[in-house]
Amino acid sequence: MLTISQLAAYAGVTVRAVRHYHKVGLLPEPERDRSGYRIYNAAAVVRLIRIRTLADAGVPLARVQELLDAGPEEFAGGVQEIDKDLRAEIRRLQDTRSRLARLAAGEHLALPQSVVDYLDRLRGLGVGERYIELERDAWIMIAAQVPHLIDSVIARKHEELDDPDMVRLYSFFTGEPDWRAGDPRIVEVADVLERLMIRAVEAGEVGADGFDDQFVALMDSTMLESAPGAELVLAILEERGWSGWTRIERVPADRLNTELPPS
Amino acid sequence: MLTISQLAAYAGVTVRAVRHYHKVGLLPEPERDRSGYRIYNAAAVVRLIRIRTLADAGVPLARVQELLDAGPEEFAGGVQEIDKDLRAEIRRLQDTRSRLARLAAGEHLALPQSVVDYLDRLRGLGVGERYIELERDAWIMIAAQVPHLIDSVIARKHEELDDPDMVRLYSFFTGEPDWRAGDPRIVEVADVLERLMIRAVEAGEVGADGFDDQFVALMDSTMLESAPGAELVLAILEERGWSGWTRIERVPADRLNTELPPS
DNA sequence: ATGGAGGGTTGACCCAGCGTCAAGGTCAAG
DNA sequence: CTTGACCTTGACGCTGGGTCAACCCTCCAT
């Protein structure tokens, strides 16, 4: 007759594991001696070894139960199913690995390559790092929101950058984004922006963009929070009958100055 | 400004996950509105997306923290280390798979092929299934106890089976193992056994066997528990100056009937 | 008989990464 | 005013045990 530690030693497991198997019902609780110690026989050793063999083979404890009591057919079936799970888990980890590799290669977190290229183009235009970070954060959100559209959206952005006015616009953003009211650049930026907007409207490029209204509002509020100058530019443009930032719209004349957009 | 569920939706995570990230300090707790609701801004969306990106890539949350705040070099280093962990985990699962495959192929739990073959040979001799199970359980314990010796032990057993007396011995075990006192086969078995023992002693095959005493006692007690006839056979053999079962020994004449082995 | 060593016992907290109630407060709309 | 959707904190569950804590039992030497 064996004590729990002897049993555990014979089966090559820890005492704690044996008690755990008792608790989950894998190994029946044996008799106790008069002092309360569990006393085991060889049958327990055998059962415990079989449990260990299955558990070491990757069988979840919950399934060890069924497999131990199963006939050869159910046993084979169960083993196959467990192998299927293992294969799936391995594939999952391999997917994870390749994602991790892409992530390390791209070196820009949560951004597809096309966006990284676009940001590099902005850098090439002399745009300051602080503005780049603002853009980057916006693109992170856009990429998360509409991952299937991101490449086409970026393509359109590249086309827009072929317009000299757009290049001129970005050339304003070389320093820190802390413009104050009265900065002469603000009106200049508004002028350039208005020209761009007019051209966009004429080209019929204004309309459904695939984003929902809330998301557009979120993007706008981010810009306004991060760049104080943006608010001033927006104010000028609103006087001239434009509203929006992420998504530009012509405001009908009769609504001007009567219904302000929620800030 | 966003509620927690809007934030979660933008980042593609669950509300519960967001709160979890707050608890573990990955995402700073934002301001609350007057009713206690958390209110988020776009910066939180961006940070949450970056957290998700890393977490989805298999980075443990504890490490996401460092990676988010790390420069490009530490980032690359951290990613490499995580990849190493992933590779190790994949290899572990693959090992598990092959073990599982061997287990399914062997179809006999916790037994090496050599033992399965040996049991098949016994079956071929007409030994009953119940006895086979007794043998099998004993071999499970032996294989667990001395896995490195199991093949040589089995080889010796095969040699023993070349002895016609051993075949004769096993030929007794074709039915149920519930022999009662008075069964004439008991004496016959004892006779055969004694002849085998004598020959083993003469061949010098008795002695150190690589098992410890406790283990031998355990094996003996199993046999005695499972097969009532074994006890009777043992009694006869003890009268004739033998002791042990798993490990046979000549008892010196002066100890006969004075010191019985503990049952 | 007594003290210490070295077993044993139950119970409870710990790890990751949340899912899932529970029990109640808030908000917007009809 | 009610309803239903959403928010809050808190706590338990899952896997497979590891690691104390606090106390009991047995054996051996003194």
Automatic annotation (TrEMBL), chains A, B:
<keyword id="KW-0238">DNA-binding</keyword>
<dbReference type="InterPro" id="IPR047057">
    <property type="entry name" value="MerR_fam"/>
</dbReference>
<dbReference type="GO" id="GO:0003700">
    <property type="term" value="F:DNA-binding transcription factor activity"/>
</dbReference>
<feature type="domain" description="HTH merR-type">
    <location>
        <begin position="1"/>
        <end position="70"/>
    </location>
</feature>
<dbReference type="Pfam" id="PF13411">
    <property type="entry name" value="MerR_1"/>
</dbReference>
<dbReference type="InterPro" id="IPR000551">
    <property type="entry name" value="MerR-type_HTH_dom"/>
</dbReference>
<dbReference type="InterPro" id="IPR009061">
    <property type="entry name" value="DNA-bd_dom_put_sf"/>
</dbReference>
<dbReference type="GO" id="GO:0003677">
    <property type="term" value="F:DNA binding"/>
</dbReference>
<protein>
    <submittedName>
        <fullName>MerR family transcriptional regulator</fullName>
    </submittedName>
</protein>
